[in-house]
Every structure is written in C-alpha cells, then in structure tokens.
C-alpha cells in the first residue's frame, strides 16, 4: 500500500471538472488523475523516471481538497 500526499496544480482540477461536466466516466477521470500524479509524484515534474506508466488502481481511500 502506498500513501501519497501530493499537491497538484489547478489545471488538473479544471481538467477533472471539465471532463466530469462533459460526461466523462470514472475511468476517464482516473486516467487524468493518474497522469497528473505520475508527472508530479513519480516523475518529480520531469526530473526522474522518464517514460514511467502510472495506473491509478485498487484505490482503497482517496481524499481531495481544493485550496
């Protein structure tokens, strides 16, 4: 199990809300979130792990806030 606490830029929230408003399902929104977490958390904004594929799966708990 991995606990991740990561700030993501507002563009990610805008993309998620736009996808939701356009009728995107949970799977499509999960792809957006996985891409954002992959870039921010695993690749450290492009400084490591180039080419790493991130899948957001088997999630037991997720908590989001917009500040």
Unreliable stretches (pLDDT < 50, length at least 5) are: none
Described by the principal axes of the CA atoms, the overall outline is globular
Order of helices and strands: HH
Strand content: under 5%
Largest sheet descriptor: none
**How many strand elements?**
0
**Ends apart, CA distance between termini:** 26 Å
Rg computed from alpha carbons, rounded to a whole number of angstroms: 12 Å
Structural class by helix and strand composition: mainly alpha
- What is the percent of helical residues? 40-55%
Mean pLDDT: 83
Task: Describe the protein in words.
This is Terminal protein Tpg-like protein. It comes from Streptomyces typhae. The chain has helices spanning 10-21, 26-42. By secondary structure, the protein is mostly helical. The longest helix has 17 residues, at 26-42. It has a domain at 10-47. It contains two helices and no strands. Helix 1 (10-21) packs antiparallel against helix 2.
Describe this structure in a few short sentences.
The protein is mostly helical and 67 residues long. It is built from two helices and no strands.
């Amino acid at each position: 199990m991995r606990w991740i606490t990561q700030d993501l830029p507002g563009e990610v929230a805008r993309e998620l809300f736009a996808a939701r408003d356009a009728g995107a399902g949970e799977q499509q929104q999960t792809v957006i979130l996985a891409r954002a977490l992959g870039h921010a958390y695993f690749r450290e904004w492009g400084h490591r792990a180039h080419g790493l594929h991130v899948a957001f799966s088997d999630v037991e708990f997720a908590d989001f806030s917009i500040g």
